[in-house]
Amino acid sequence: MINISDRQKEVLRCLIYNDDYIPVRKISTKLNVSEKTIYRDLKSMEGLLNSYKIKLSTRKGKGVKLAASEQNKNILLFELGQTRKDIEMTGSLRWKNILLYLLWISPNSSSIHKLSNMFFVGETSIVNDFKNIEKKLHNTSLKLIKDHEGTSIIGDEYNIRCMINDLIMKQYINRARSQVRYDTRLNDENYNQLCAYFSEELIISVENTLVQIEKELGYELGYVYFINIITHILIAIERIKEDKHNELENIEVREVDLHMYRIIIEAFQDLERQLNISLPDSEIRHIFLHISSAGVEGITESKAPNNDIKTNDNIKDKFFEELINEVSKALNNNFVTNSQLKDSLYMHISSMINRINFNIKITCPLLQDTMDEFPEMFSLIRDIVSKLCEKYYSDLTINDDEICYIVLYFQAALEQHREKYNIVVVCSTGVGTSYLLKGRIQQNYPNLHVVDVLPVKQLQDYDFSEIDLVISTIRIDNLLDEDIPVAYTSALFDKDDVNTVTKILENLNEERNDIYGR
What we know:
By secondary structure, the chain is of the alpha/beta class. Helix content is 54%, strand content 8%. It has 22 helices and ten strands. Helix 10 packs across helix 13 and helix 16 runs antiparallel to helix 19 (375-392).
């Protein structure tokens, strides 16, 4: 554990939690000591900060801040140890914090004693946390290694990054709380998740690079692929900058879209110059595989990328047709005639098969919620997909994150209704979840007709003259010119959301005789 006083730890926490300059006067007032004492503490901790590749930056009239990557600040925060209040709030998630810490420092190790001091718990508790970590790592290529040098996580670089991505993106995903920004495709929740681990400047640079690639290609990636690719690139850059990475495995691709590959190379050459880093060829190749195997949204068929790099169309078609037929039979519902489901799901399945062929992994932040909300559906889809994989793709394994998206497509189709009442749904978590939200709204409110499901960027140009209500999973307060009521809900539209919409409808329709309800 870091051997400094409790006051000095609080000084460092103040600086870690503030990205901008903070006046020394403000720190001294908070800790009830003199400014001289704070200056003395800062001077004495310079050597410590240097060991974490962190510099103290001072600016006259503004104060002091830490100049470092978010990764290094997070590692320092881990090693400062959590406060008692933090432990009370996040005790059940402690093992995930330990796992994330060990992943960030991999292949380096940490001792049980050090982790015990960091998290204010006994060594027995840390040993029990290791059991949870081992369960999490079960059926992955990652291993928790405990030897005389300490405890570490060992495995191939790509899977280490995938696990970091999984832990970051599955935190606090139910509702977006902060204001929508005009300069990013990322929804507020994902943006805030990333800002907890990466600098805002780096996030913007990486997003701008990916957006530039989209412009050159002539289409946008589906949102779920967009956020997953950004997160993987951010993690890669941080691990390369801190020299805590191994070379990625070189995956052989039979055919390469040279036009796409050239666009990606040129875009990342600009990013390398901007960040003063050098990305190995294997990194560019993996980025190419991520983008070429991603789904798309809002494009015409003529602009869609070729997603058949390594799959046989005939086999893929049979897989898809049997999936639709088997689910239809099991649920006694004719999905075969649902053209909207078939078009969207076919594109997703096509991309999914290529991703799995290339060992490209995406994270579904709604996985646990979906498993809790639709356990029978999840189990059914998982069993059917597993059997079809054995039949058509015996060497492939489809993980639960991929299963989750398939479940959301079918659940959305199951909950569709035809009754009319004009509302618009705004949801940025992807096509599958958007249409699931639409279906659940209509299931709870038979008189509501969802006219459109919109991404944020289309709001300002949309004609709301015939719309009575907007239901959104993200904050859009300043994006609507019209005086239209907005109900903010979660993507899965739970009981709390039903209550929220019911109250708004009651207020909205006081003058009407028929109050719309569940």
